[in-house]
Fold these 2 entries.
Entry 1:
Amino acid sequence: MICSSISFCNYRNISLETVSFFPGVNVLWGDNAQGKSNILEGIYFFARGRSFRGARERELIRFGEKQAQLSLTFQKEGAQYPVTLEAELPQTGKKVLRRGGARLSGVRELIGTFRAVLFCPLHLSLVGGGPALRRNFLDIALSQLYPGYLDSLSRYNRILIQRNALIKSGGSTDTAVWEVYAQQLSRLGADIAVRRHTYMQALETHVREIFEGMTKGRETPRLTYQSGAIPEGDTSDQEQIRKEGEARLFSSLTNSIEREMRYGATLYGTHKDDIGIRLNEKEARTYASQGQQRSLALAMKLAEGELARDIGGEYPVFLLDDVLSELDGQRRSFILQALTDRQIIVTSCESAHFGTDTVQMLQVREGKIVGQKKNL
Ligand SMILES: Nc1ncnc2c1ncn2[C@@H]1O[C@H](COP(=O)(O)OP(=O)(O)O)[C@@H](O)[C@H]1O
Ligand SMILES: [Mg+2]
């Protein structure tokens, strides 16, 4: 998948600009606070349907303006024509999304159309940080690959919020109410868990290969999906795991209401799951060095790209926001090498690291592209 261009109108600090990319390495470079990450955020908006910086939509609109517009043109491998996606973000009211000029019903219809893998400094804590970060990693990757996934996830989260509200408000004496919640959460939760579990098994193969290449070492990473719905090491078929997972979750949810009432929230389900990461059979979060944790995190991100190709049929666009400057020379060249022959769009404060590569340098200043040069 190749992102050919993106146009902005009143988006963040960009009043009006079109940025064109070529299929190899594209470097957005310039001083701090010029709009480099804003451009990347705009591109990723179309992959995720929202900002990766957790910003509310209104914050994306240029100060003092009524609405922001962005439009991205990309080309799928082997496709004859490019596709244009558009977004209008108004100050009040709902955003409008379009594909090829036709209005989409919402993010769910958009997601999966244009695929991208994002690396940003936050991802370097993928191994050492909290479980929410790792669940999020899975959710974003899976949403782009399986149209139904985001649907199950949003429904699960909606029902979870309702159940938590019921717990906080003192509960219910009607067992049928709890059973309905347990039924819904366990069915959706088992769907989510099986997808994540299967994804993790496939991801692990790539992570191993990439990590071993990166460290040239004899250390072997092991990644497992840790879930109350799935016993560790389970290799039975998906439908079997799903059925058993559903039963397991249902029983946890109906048997622990008193504990949950004391605790004040739902204690069992996929919102508590995690990815277990070990290096040479030792818990990476506790035992691996900072450098090893970073290498593992990078390997997971690169593996995400590999799986996107295995499952989705072609490489996604790789977006690297400020990560290169965070890495030492060895990891930096590893990652750039690992990504040759793919489209990557990176931000950087300097233009130096890229002197000898085949790259397009785009200089960003005050929300504008002020210089464009290809070293081919
Ligand atoms: N809604 C907005 N309207 C106008 N400017 C904004 C808005 N949101 C952020 N900015 C500006 O964008 C700049 C930061 O851009 P960013 O892309 O993060 O910089 P960098 O080039 O360092 O990656 C800051 O100057 C900030 O004030
Ligand atoms: Mg930035």
Entry 2:
Amino acid sequence: MWSMHFLEYGVIRKKGEHRIALVYPNVYKAGNSNLGFLFAYNFINEQEGFQCERFFTDFPKSIESNSILADFDIIAFSCSFEMDYFTVYEIAQKFPDKMKILGGRSAYNPFPLKGVIDYIFVGDAEQSLEEFLNQYRDGELSDIEGVFTGCEDRVKAGFSQLEYHPVHQPIQWGEYTQAFYRSFLLEVSRGCSRQCSFCMVSHCIGRKRERPLDHIQGILEEAETCTKFETVSLIGPDSHSNLLEIIDICHPYRISLPSLRIEQISEEILRSADLRTVTIAPESSERLRISLGKRITDEEILKKVRLCSEHAHWIKLYFMVGLPGETSRDLQDIVDLTRQVSRIMRTKVTISPFVPKPHTPCADHEYSTKTVEKALSYLKNRIRFSGPPARSGFIQWAISTGNEQVTPYLRTRRYSAWRNLDLSLMEKKWKRVEV
Ligand code: SF4
């Protein structure tokens, strides 16, 4: 591992009385490009008396000082994906006596980790994490809004107005890969004002809030003194209404727009951002897409793709299968749209099982591994795509909507063990989280 040339700019090396190990329960490539993880890394290190160092599954010793987990006072997990719970569980079992905390997008249902993690930060953690660290330093921990310990009847998810942004982002310049190549992640907005019924962003993270342009400019100027990058990745599921101005602020850096909304694709944006790849999420057929709240027709998508073909090299399409109300006609429509798009430009397709998420109008939909398997095999015979298998969708569903009855299953990733779980009999405790 270390034989590869490893070179990072933007690392924080700090000594503090209280040492926190920040674990991303997956590989460096994914975690070191995760904004929530970088948020925790910066935020904790900025608090007086605290020192925070990074761990990944392919870096079992801390990057900052080669320390082991046992050397730290607290193990903090930053976790965005349900399938990473296995690693969280495994590490937590190894350190029964150490304090363990967790935050991230998957924590809107904290119940599967009840009893495994001592303090779970639900929702935006800007306020709750600061309060927690202050209390910890003072040696007395009491109830904090937005923090779940398993004793509360209800927990209110944290909500932030985006005052804070991490600027010390360790960026890889060696041979080690990172999901966003030599990129500074700039969060331009959070939340979404749309209400697509399958999506957690608007239903959990809340309505869209945008960072003001002068704030964005300030973040970038500060980042230039803290780390080194050649691309700025603009992060925000609903993008920003002043996208062109932001692109202008970010020049001369290369721009990446991983969450550009279809409606925002324009000649001007494509020209000024100089994108190699454009990502579009048609989700499903036109009929299902519109009925689930994403009001874009196939014709509009094709129009945007034609425009992209004049400026970008690749288009990436994201679909889901197993959505409520899906028929074979919808699957055929996915095939037709994909074929039409790939006739226009080079296309990569990802198709994932639809996983019902807590707090969304689709939360009560029952996942069927059989239905998803059938849909994926129908598509596999007609188009080329990548994506996780149907069985992993079942496990994600159990973790995202289940309760503490799911916890013992986290010992194994084997589907044969999970398939016996009957979620229809399980109390939907995630409803005790107020979003
Ligand atoms: S799918 Fe996209 S547009 Fe719809 S609510 Fe989610 S983030 Fe917003």
